[in-house]
Amino acid sequence: MNGPERKKYNPENKTGYEYVLLADHLAGLIADGDWPAGSRIPGERALSEEYGVALDTVRKATKILRDRGLVQTLKSKGTFVTSPRS
């Protein structure tokens, strides 16, 4: 295998759309505190390479996170984890 080892985001082999499974995994990183509020998450290309998925898969997953209110994307700045809602 060439290149870095890909991270697994679906170890239980759940079925469903790849972008939803990836979004659920990334949401778990936020919930577990691996990505605390205010932190910048890796860019789309970096996540694509890290998880071995297409760039469009990452974009759709990021949109789901935005729709859930977990992240906010600022143009030319990046995507940041939002503060938890009270």
From TrEMBL:
GO MF: DNA binding; DNA-binding transcription factor activity
Keywords from the named record: DNA-binding, Transcription, Transcription regulation
Coiled-coil ranges per UniProt: none
Pfam families reported in the protein's UniProt record: GntR
HTH gntR-type domain: residues covered: 16-84
SMART domains: HTH_GNTR
Biological process, per Gene Ontology: negative regulation of DNA-templated transcription
Name of the molecule in the record: Transcriptional regulator
Annotated source species: Saccharomonospora xinjiangensis XJ-54
